[in-house]
Design goal:
Rossmann fold, 229 residues, binds iron/sulfur cluster, 3-stranded antiparallel β-sheet, 4-stranded parallel β-sheet, alpha/beta
């Protein structure tokens, strides 16, 4: 899940200065699950902005705002409300917000959220960073625990000399990632893997911007159903 946080309301208001009529876009995926930009939060935002004298021309929560086809489709259903607006306020992550901006080229796009990180959702209100999308996954060698995302020093070979009683020197509240990796490899009977020296990561796979066009499976390539006689 992409973790987002709501910007302080004052900042949102500031960014809307000079714009009276506002259309709000939420996201039905991560921002709904994390309660930052789902239907409830969009309606709350609409109410607060109305109190501040703004006119909300309409709102929509796209199933996945980052999916351009869905944002375009839902935008058509709200075309009149969007045309009437001076600006669009996005309550999606940065990718979703840019889809909204590019879909509505003539309207200023103001973000109401800050996109923060890619996380494991542990509980409804608890998430932690798990993957920095490095483009070259090494979980096979690290017991399924990512040191790139969870060790503050991004050490490929650890632990560093600073860990104490299994805790990280950078943040003693946290378990040292490399101690966790060691323990997990031990449980898996793969403790010899800890001896391997991992080469530095190929950072070129992380350079921005990244994009991809992939071949879609053709109907012919789909596995044919198995018939039992
Ligand atoms: S090694 Fe890279 S791709 Fe794999 S979990 Fe860590 S950051 Fe993500
Ligand atoms: S103590 Fe562990 S998690 Fe913290 S920086 Fe060192 S190796 Fe990384």
């Amino acid at each position: 899940m992409i973790v987002t946080e709501q910007k302080p309301f004052e900042e949102v208001l500031q960014s809307l200065q000079g714009h009276t009529k506002v259309f709000i876009v939420g996201c039905g995926s991560c921002a709904t699950a994390w309660h930052t930009g789902g239907e409830r939060e969009v309606k709350e935002m609409a109410a607060r902005l109305t109190e501040q004298g703004k006119t909300i021309t309409g709102w929509m929560v796209v199933e996945e705002t980052c999916d351009e086809r869905k944002t375009k489709r839902d935008s058509r259903a709200h075309a009149a409300e969007i045309t009437e607006a001076d600006a669009i306020l996005s309550m999606a992550c940065g990718a979703g917000s840019q889809v909204v901006a590019l879909t509505h080229d003539s309207k200023p796009l103001l973000p109401a959220l800050n996109a923060m990180f890619l996380a494991r959702l542990q509980r409804l209100n608890l998430a932690d960073e798990r993957c920095v999308l490095c483009g070259d996954c090494i979980l096979a060698q690290t017991g399924g625990i990512c040191p790139v995302a969870t060790c503050p020093k991004e050490l490929m070979n650890g632990p560093c000399g600073g860990y104490r009683d299994g805790k990280c020197e950078v943040d003693p509240q946290r378990d040292c990632s490399w101690v966790l990796i060691y323990q997990r490899l031990q449980r898996l009977g793969q403790i010899e893997d800890i001896q391997a020296i991992h080469t530095p990561k190929d950072q070129s796979k992380r350079k921005h911007p990244r994009n991809v066009a992939k071949a879609l499976p053709t109907p012919d390539a789909a596995p044919s159903p198995v018939h039992h006689h």
